[in-house]
Each structure stands twice: as structure tokens, then as C-alpha cells.
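Spend some time on the protein that follows and explain the fold to me:
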Amino acid sequence: MEFLVRGATVFDEPGVCLSFEETAEELATNVESLGFDVPTLKPFRASEISDCMAQQPGMLHRRALTVPEPQDISELKAADLASLPADLRAELRQGLISLDVKRISGAIERAASSHAALGATLKEPAGRFAFTEMLRAVETSLETPA
């Protein structure tokens, strides 16, 4: 990790860290233990990385696992989201746009404190990092009067 951080900060080199065993929180803790600021940790979809790797010239790539396709989150209805306070919907939207997992989780917890069923419904796609689908539902709810 130190190699990646120093390469980026000292030599202005790009770097990518893929971790299949550490959670984002564990990785952040390890980076902080080295005395570095925590880098931006963005969730990913394995199929997108695999597809990108397969397109690189000269790279032999074989997908070793089956990645489930994104599920329809039709149970996440804009009308249900519209029942949340506008500031909470705006906070969730900003978290989704910035891919800020802590901000998204905080907004979901706030929603769950007053609407337990909606909180549970939001946690499911968030757990799969289905942020695009969630953002669509939130944006539609912003167009719906509360």
C-alpha cells in the first residue's frame, strides 16, 4: 500500500488497489496505520472490471466467477422515498453521487430511524453497491411532492 500511496503523492503516478479479502474499512484502517490519509475508496462491480480487463490488448484474461447481474430494485419506490424529509433525500442523493459509503449509510440509518421498512429496503441495494439504481429512485422522488 505504501508503494501505491508514495507513487501517487511523490511521483504523481496513477495506481489502483483491488482487495478481495479486506473490507473498505479494514483497508482504510491499514492505510491510516501507515500514517497516510485514507484514499478514496470506491465500490466496484466485478463484471465491469473484468470486461475492462478483457478489452486490453495483449492481456490474457479469463473470468473465473459468475457475477450476478444488477437486480431490479422496483421495491424501492419513489413515492416511499418522497415521504422522507427533503434534506434527508438530498443528503442521500449527494452521498450516492459522490460514492461516499459513510454518507450513504448515515442517510439510510436516519431514514430507518423513522421508517424501518424503508430503511431495510434501502440497505439491500446499498449492500450490493447498486448506487446508480438508488440514485435514479432518489432523483425521481425529488420530483415527487412530499
